[in-house]
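SAMPLE LOG
Freezer: B-3
Tube label: C17
Construct: single chain, 197 aa
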Amino acid sequence: MSTYVLDLPVTDEDIKKLKIGDVLYLNGLITTGRDEVHNRVVKQGLASPVDLKGKAIFHAGPIMKKVSDDKYEVVSVGPTTSMRMESAEADFLAKTGVKIIIGKGGMGPSTTKGCKDNICVHTIFPGGCAVVGAEAVKEVTGVEWLDLGMPEAMWMMNCEKFGPLIVSIDSEGNNLIDNNKIEFNKRKEEALARLKR
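STRUCTURE (predicted):
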């Protein structure tokens, strides 16, 4: 396991060196986007109003505080369960050029293939760290699709050392959560066998 600090946007070479279990911190522009953003881009065929090429999409519904007509501050920004985006994520990656997905929990085979095909990674931001996330946001630089509501809009956040992010799917198609399930079930069967002796 290695720890990396990367500046956004990242390159394919940056992504290829990341392996499942690695810990990552990000500097630069991170954009939130969850269910409705994926729906608009993938199912409705709309172009993302934010240039996401080489950047990170954060499955999150932040709480924002309006401080002036066009200025917001982050109160809290915690991850949304990534599996909710599973059916759309591979197409979203292909259409937008996103290189890093940030969310909660694992994702399935479609996203795993999407990460391999598009040289991307999925990372897990630990649950319960929404205030830690907010502290890493230095400035909210803008918002798009605010008509979707605060949690579903695309918030652009300039961040400094945002993390820790744990790589759960790498660009070679390895899936940490799936691997753990196999390993933990094996250990469970071994433990049950010992108990039955």
